[in-house]
Amino acid sequence: MMTSPDNDNTRDEPMVFIVIAKAYETEGGEPIDLHVMLTAPDDDTAVRLTLNALSEEGFLEADLDQIGMITGAPDEEPHASAYQGALEGEVAIIRFA
Predict the structure, then answer these.
(1) CB 67: neighbour CB atoms within 10 A?
(2) What is the strand order of the sheet 61-70 is part of?
(3) Which residues pair with 93 in a beta bridge?
């Protein structure tokens, strides 16, 4: 029985996703621009974890505009701290006012 794939497609580090979204704290309210950074095994799980985290933070609705994978640690804040938090298992939500 093989325990790991015999190819070069395995990653040594976790996959860190960034989700670009607009979320609403009140019905009919103004949208809040957000970036959400988290680790997940795939993009479907990343979307589900993002929506769960936004709901836990009190957002009533969210429009997820784009999802992508981060290939290296960002240099500038607030994304650098959010990336580190994602590596530690947090779902980091960055709000833009």
Answers:
(1) 17
(2) 61-70, 16-24, 32-39, 92-96
(3) 36
